[in-house]
Specification:
With about 110 residues, the chain is an alpha+beta fold. Helices cover about 30% and strands about 25% of the residues. It is built from 4 helices and 4 strands. It has a 4-stranded antiparallel beta sheet. It comes from Streptomyces endophyticus.
Length: about 110
């Protein structure tokens, strides 16, 4: 699996709840349409382990079969629509990509 990992913080004028509702609602409707999307996990962040990790509201892990499939998704109209919906929201994000390795299953 090749993943796009997004860590996001809400716009300053939004509540945490509003941001999560939007991300899992209206924004999710566009995300589901990404070509080649094989999996999507979303974590609502409700607390930080330590002060230097504070300030984030949620994390998404979008899974694709390969880096090429992710690149195709990032060039798609569906991705452009999702980015357009975000617009000038003024939240923060970190976006990284890489190969997944399963390290443990219980």
């Amino acid at each position: 699996m090749y993943n796009l990992v997004l860590l996001a913080a809400r716009p300053p004028e939004w509540t945490h709840e509003r941001f999560i509702d939007w991300w899992r609602g209206d924004h999710a409707e566009l995300t589901y349409r990404l070509p080649g999307l094989r999996s999507w996990r979303h974590t609502e962040i409700d607390q930080a382990l330590e002060p230097r990790s504070e300030g984030w509201d949620g994390m998404s892990v979008l899974g694709f079969d390969s880096p090429e499939d992710l690149r195709k998704a990032l060039k798609s109209q569906e991705w452009a629509d999702a980015i357009a919906q975000v617009g000038d929201m003024k939240g923060r994000r970190i976006a990284v990509m890489g190969h997944e390795a399963e390290m443990f299953t219980g």
